[in-house]
Specification:
Mean pLDDT: 80
Structural class: alpha/beta
Distance between the termini: 93 Å
Helix content: 55-70%
Strand content: 5-15%
Strand order of the largest sheet: 2-1-3-4-5-6
Number of helices: 11
CATH topology of the largest domain: Rossmann fold
CATH architecture of the largest domain: 3-Layer(aba) Sandwich
Low-confidence stretches: 26-31, 173-187
Largest sheet: 6 strands, parallel
CATH superfamily of the largest domain: Response regulator
CATH class of the largest domain: Alpha Beta
Shape: globular
């Protein structure tokens, strides 16, 4: 090979090596920035929805799914995810028990509770067990992704209503999450309605439509319909007349 060609051929070879190394470093960096997540919820459709939402983000990857607390513990110990997103009410072992077990085992996994329950008891027990965040299932995508990033980076995240519970607890106050003129006592709420469901119950019985409630609470109409369906299912009623009678009988409004 002529000296000139040999010189430039060697330079090209070195340049190619440098490019390959740079590309490898970029790929390694990107992979290191991906947050690996395990989902725990006993409803497959819920997990499918959460997975679709999370995997629309380039830096989030769902690496495992389970349907109860015991399976969550095993999956976390096996896959070592960065984050566990877990529901509370599940068969075999509930989410709070699973979080406490992981915490006692000195697991490094960060945990976000994702639940439909906004009761003070569940919230405080979850935090005491070691949860890094608590979100309600009607949280929108923007807040959900924001919470994941904050918790992943070592912070804590609690949605608005949840923060109210924490502040009230710290101050030694017993205030409702929402501004009801009338609030049922725990003994009267035998149907285990969440505070959001109680609020919607009151608005439904005041004559507002789902659309009007949606605008008033600044939630989507679909979210309101879901809460309305859940509260009627819990109270075992099929129509507004029965709903009104049962709510008045048990002093829920």
């Amino acid at each position: 090979m002529p000296p000139v060609l040999h010189k430039y051929g060697s330079a090209f070879f070195v340049f190619k090596i440098i490019c390959n190394l740079a590309q490898l470093r970029i790929i390694t960096y990107i992979m290191s920035e991906i947050t690996k997540i395990v989902l725990a919820d006993d409803h497959a459709l819920v997990r499918d929805g959460i997975r679709a939402l999370l995997e629309s983000e380039r830096d989030l990857e769902v690496i495992g799914e389970v349907s109860n607390g015991e399976e969550a513990i095993v999956m976390v110990e096996k896959l070592h995810p960065d984050l566990l997103i877990i529901d509370i009410r599940m068969p075999v072992m509930n989410g709070i028990e699973a979080v406490e077990a992981l915490h006692n085992n000195n697991s490094n996994v960060k945990v976000i509770i994702l639940s439909m329950h906004d009761s003070e008891e569940y919230i405080l027990k979850s935090i005491s067990a070691g949860a890094n965040g608590y979100l309600l299932k009607d949280t929108d995508k923007t807040e959900f992704i924001k919470a994941i990033h904050i918790v992943r980076d070592g912070g804590k995240y609690f949605s608005g209503d949840i923060s109210n519970v924490l502040v009230n607890n710290i101050l030694g106050l017993k205030l409702p999450l929402v501004n009801h003129e009338k609030q049922s006592t725990p003994s009267e709420n035998i149907f285990d309605l969440t505070n959001k469901e109680l609020q919607i119950l009151e608005l439904v019985l005041s004559g507002l439509t789902n659309q009007q409630i949606s605008e008033k609470l600044k939630n989507s109409k679909r979210t309101i319909e879901t809460h309305r369906f859940n509260l009627m299912r819990k109270m075992d009623v099929k129509n507004l007349i029965d709903l009104s009678k049962k709510a008045q009988k048990h002093q829920l409004v």
